Amino acid sequence: MKVFVIAGEASGDKLGSALMAGLKTLRPDVSFDGVGGPLMQAEGLISRFPMDELSVMGLAEILPKYRALKARIRQMADAIIETRPDMLITIDSPDFCLRVARLVKAASDIRTVHYVAPTVWAWRPGRAAKMARHIDHVLALFPFEPPYMQAAGMDCDFVGHPVVADHVASDDEAAALGLDGTVVMVLPGSRKGEVSRLSACFGQAVAQIAAAVPDAQFVIPTTAGVYDLVQARVADWSVLVTVLEPGAPSRLAHFKRADVALAASGTVSLELAANGTPMVIAYDMAWLSRIIIGWMLRVDTVTLVNLVSETRVVPEFIGKDCQPGPIADAVLRVLQDPDAQRDAMALTMERLGQGGEAPGLRAARAVLDRLDQSSVDDDQPKGQ
């Protein structure tokens, strides 16, 4: 069995490696071709070119590399059509991956699978119909996504979110940090643009929290791409903050130890939920983006814990509401009543697959089951 798989960034590499491991468990004869990072390569993929070439975000960053990316899209499509794998699996990175799938479908009947459903439930619902023209099967991370994909004409299976397979520190590991008092984790984003926009607001909110909670200690975990920027920005804050280096061994223990978190909107809310850490979510964007997204948004909350648990217990401050005073007040309220979020966080993790089959294996099983079913359907005489 031959599988061509493409991932374009670190999160996709993680998803891809787990899926590959699952496929090897269920189909020991499987072989892989395509593009991926170090985790996928550890599972046996020889990447046709460095995955980092595809890890480009933002119009300003993409424009200088547009011609090179376009050539890579054509190169991948040609390679897939030539080698005729049993299936093509593209992982997230829709701007690249779905263009490859479109070219492949235009020239062949190769089965196409896309891992990570587009957020059509939040905005731009028309993306599902466009995607259905060249994608046969979608692997969804959230349990409420399959109906949207199926309505557009694609097979879709909820396969669990990778956060449920992540290691969580124990209470003993958290206690071993030796941190007394109230620990507040601050997460201003994993991208430079996010840190730049949010750091001043978060810094002022932290100052107000510190004034109200004298024993508070503030910790910021970072990633390699923003560590230097975070260091520079917090130097202007009026409160002492501990900035953890990327990959710090104590990162997971700090997540477990934190009494509350102030976090930028994103999947980090699920990591906090996995650790049982109550949170306040805040996010801001450029004024034009505020207007466009506000006009297109189809949900009343962007916080994943709220969406998955079907509650609104996590306070959020988005766009023009991202102001230091209200944010600080919300953090203080959460500190006074942290249990208000506990049930919603536990329900979120349960609904995302915690305690069940590992997402990678579940995704592999869904891929193979749908492939087998499509083969049966193809063998059926017309009209049956």
How are the elements arranged and paired?
Blueprint: E1 2-7, H1 10-26, E2 31-35, H2 38-42, H3 59-62, H4 66-83, E3 87-91, H5 94-107, E4 111-115, H6 126-132, E5 137-140, H7 146-151, E6 155-158, H8 171-175, E7 183-187, H9 192-212, E8 217-221, H10 227-234, E9 241-244, H11 251-257, E10 260-264, H12 268-274, E11 279-283, H13 287-296, H14 304-309, E12 316-318, H15 324-336, H16 342-351, H17 359-379
Parallel strand pairs: 1-2, 1-3, 3-4, 4-5, 5-6, 7-8, 7-10, 8-9, 10-11, 11-12
Helix pairs in contact: 1-17, 4-5, 9-10, 9-15
Give an account of the 3D structure:
By secondary structure, this protein is an alpha/beta fold. It has a six-stranded parallel sheet, sandwiched between helices. A six-stranded parallel sheet has the order 9-8-7-10-11-12, with helices on both faces. Helix 1 crosses helix 17, helix 4 packs across helix 5 and helix 9 runs parallel beside helix 10. Residues 57-61 have low confidence and may be disordered. The chain has 17 helices and twelve strands.
Compact summary:
This protein has 384 residues and is α/β, with parallel strands linked by helices. It has 17 helices and twelve strands.
Characteristic terms for this protein:
elongated, 6-stranded parallel sheet, alpha/beta, 384 residues
Biggest pleated sheet: 6 strands, parallel
Q: What percent of residues adopt helix (DSSP H or I)?
A: 40-55%
> Which residue ranges are poorly predicted, with pLDDT under 50 across at least 5 consecutive positions?
57-61
Q: Mean of the pLDDT scores?
A: 92
